[in-house]
Design brief:
alpha/beta, binds pyridoxal-5'-phosphate
Length: 230
């Protein structure tokens, strides 16, 4: 086994343990291997090793990798900040966009999906901590954003995503994860949506996120090692 596949094995084992400890079912939690800035060859290796879902963060890099790996059995997720003028590279080309944080972006994804005659599944990114430099919809305007985005016919809201502030101590992210779960419950009731997906947890805190109800964990560094600088 290579270092890369060994890392993936280790993360998978930790994930299985965390799911077990949380009293949840394995099929409730999907590992998104965050491959941004890593090579198509690395993705191919992990794909051959059985990893299915990969997350990318940069629109043009995503577009190129989708082309390079067209022969691979990969399910793409787009997880990074996305400018609406680049939505065309992403919409209709991935299983899920995690990072929808403005109506303008939802509209751009909707427009491209309509052109392709498909429906793009999305998550609404929520800024729970209120850090000004973080993207995401503030909790107190979620209702408005849901109203507006639900009116778009070619995007479908599948749940919520969040990025906690950076903490040295992963336990400190727990209240942020718990809050996302709470918002999921409120929005379900208010809008009559299923909202099955909660995307939360990265290399440093995915174990806590799983205990707090994550269904998608986005793990990069623990699998691929340190990223090259963009
Ligand atoms: C890069 C990135 C990750 C992965 O972070 P790691 O700490 O390397 O696991 C997760 N989520 C988002 C939105 C990212 O941009």
């Amino acid at each position: 086994m290579s270092e890369l596949t060994e890392n993936l094995e280790r993360v998978r084992e930790e994930l299985v343990q965390a799911v077990h400890k949380a009293g949840r079912k394995q099929e409730e939690v999907t590992l998104v291997a965050v491959s941004k800035l890593h090579s198509a060859a690395s993705i191919r290796e992990l794909s051959n090793f059985g990893q299915q879902v990969f997350g990318e963060s940069y629109a043009q890099e995503f577009r190129d990798k989708v082309q390079d790996l067209a022969d691979c059995d990969v399910r793409w997720h787009f997880i990074g900040g996305l400018q609406s003028n680049k939505a065309k590279y992403v919409s209709g080309k991935c299983e899920l966009v995690h990072s929808v944080d403005t109506l303008k972006l939802a509209e751009a994804l909707n427009k491209k999906a309509a052109n392709l005659d498909c429906v793009q599944d999305i998550l609404i990114q929520v800024n729970i901590s209120g850090e000004v430099q973080k993207s995401g919809v503030a909790p107190d305007v979620l209702d408005t954003v849901f109203d507006e985005v639900m009116a778009l016919e070619n995007v479908r809201i599948q749940g919520l995503m969040t990025m906690p502030p950076f903490f040295d101590e992963p336990e400190r992210a727990r209240p942020v994860f718990a809050k996302l779960k709470e918002l999921q419950g409120e929005l379900r009731g208010r809008f009559g949506l299923e909202l099955p997906q909660l995307s939360m947890g990265m290399s440093g805190d995915y174990l806590q996120a799983i205990e707090e109800g994550a269904t998608l964990v986005r793990v990069g560094t623990s699998i691929f090692g340190r990223r090259p600088v963009k």
